[in-house]
Amino acid sequence: MFHPTNDLSLDVTTVSADATGAIIQVRGDLDVAHCQLLAAVLDNHLQLGHRFVRLDLSQLEILDGSGLRAIVAAHNQFLAARGNLILTNIGPMVVRLLSLTELDQALLIADGPDYSTRFFCVARSGVFVRACRRSPTSPPLNGALRRLRCPTPVAW
């Protein structure tokens, strides 16, 4: 007899979305058994025109190589669509894993899951420019644009 469990292995929830972007929260285990769910959700957002996505990993419990591969593949797909995938609120386990694999040097990572912050991203002359704004009409946070290296596709 089959008894369903209350243990949800992976839950991928769209917290908010607008015409060009979305905020997605991941809960549970992003491993070989569940990475296709995240890949399908991110692919669906790209098909809907959401090229600027923030992926909140605050409630991620397990991340293995397959989960990393899914994130890297999505990163590359978003860049190819002239968008970006920003990882937010990553915990110590994810920080360590990204550091060990040196993906922390290639993926876009933000400090927190501030859902009221909207990212406007533009690439100019090989330099990636990011302006963090509370709303389209408010002045930039920290008073200026922050220049970062231009994100590139990752071969991993």
Number of helices: 3
**General form:** globular
CATH architecture of the domain at 10-115: 2-Layer Sandwich
Kindly report the CATH topology of the domain at 10-115: Transcription Regulator spoIIAA
The level of helicity is 10-25%
Beta strand count: 8
Which structural class best describes the helix and strand composition? Answer: alpha/beta
SSE order, as H and E? EEHEHEHEEEE
**Mean of pLDDT:** 76
Q: Could you give the order of strands across the largest sheet?
A: 1-2-3-4-5
Q: What is the C-alpha radius of gyration, as a whole number of Å?
A: 16 Å
Which sheet architecture does the biggest sheet show?
Answer: 5 strands, mixed
Strand proportion:
35-45%
CATH class of the domain at 10-115: Alpha Beta
User: Residue ranges: pLDDT <50 for 5 or more in a row?
Assistant: 1-7, 113-149
Describe this structure in words.
Helix content is 24%, strand content 35%. The chain is α/β, with parallel strands linked by helices and 156 residues long.
Outline of the structure:
With 156 residues, the protein is of the alpha/beta class. The protein is built from three helices and eight strands; from the N terminus they run E-E-H-E-H-E-H-E-E-E-E. It has a domain at 10-115: 2-Layer Sandwich (Transcription Regulator spoIIAA), CATH 3.30.750.
Spell out the blueprint of helices and strands.
Elements: E1 10-17, E2 21-30, H1 35-47, E3 52-63, H2 65-80, E4 84-88, H3 92-100, E5 108-109, E6 118-124, E7 127-133, E8 146-149
Parallel strand pairs: 2-3, 3-4, 4-5
Antiparallel strand pairs: 1-2, 6-7, 7-8
